[in-house]
Design a protein that fits this description.
Length: 148
């Protein structure tokens, strides 16, 4: 099958299914990691810049909801949303470190912050995982549902 795109229907058994389930599990852990990093930094943001704290709360909630969606089923929309959420978070981090956010220029140039680096690492992995899964041919949602 060199050079061809493998459909998800062809991975319902064997090693390909195991690899696919590992990707789903890694994405769920990655979304949990994004939520955790932002929970750890939440109080400081709420105190410093309430609007950024509110964005963090939205990111945490969205990460957890998408993790649940990927636990329950294989839905291309959940994969797309997870990759887009991680990519948007990377963009937000980049903006905060280059031009700064409104009323927040203190982080410009602060690329080495440990929580920020951890977040970027997890988000990049999630973008790559989502892209690798979405490159497969589309199929109905819940093809590889856990427990069904």
């Amino acid at each position: 099958m060199a050079g061809s795109v493998q459909s998800r229907e062809s991975i319902n058994t064997g090693p390909d299914l195991e690899l696919y389930l590992v990707r789903r599990a890694a994405a769920v852990v990655g979304l949990g990691g994004i939520a955790l990093v932002h929970v750890l930094d939440l109080q400081g943001k709420l105190d410093e810049l309430p609007y950024v704290g509110v964005m963090f709360i939205g990111l945490i909630g969205a990460s957890l909801l998408l993790a649940e969606a990927l636990i329950r089923s294989d839905d291309a929309r959940a994969w797309l949303a997870a990759g887009a959420l991680a990519a948007a978070t990377i963009v937000g981090y980049g903006i905060s470190r280059t031009t700064g956010l409104p009323q927040a220029t203190g982080d410009i140039g602060n690329w080495g912050e440990p929580l920020g680096m951890a977040s970027m690492f997890v988000e990049c992995i999630l973008v790559l995982l989502s892209a690798s899964v979405l490159r497969l041919e589309p199929q109905p949602a819940q093809l590889v549902a856990v427990g069904h």
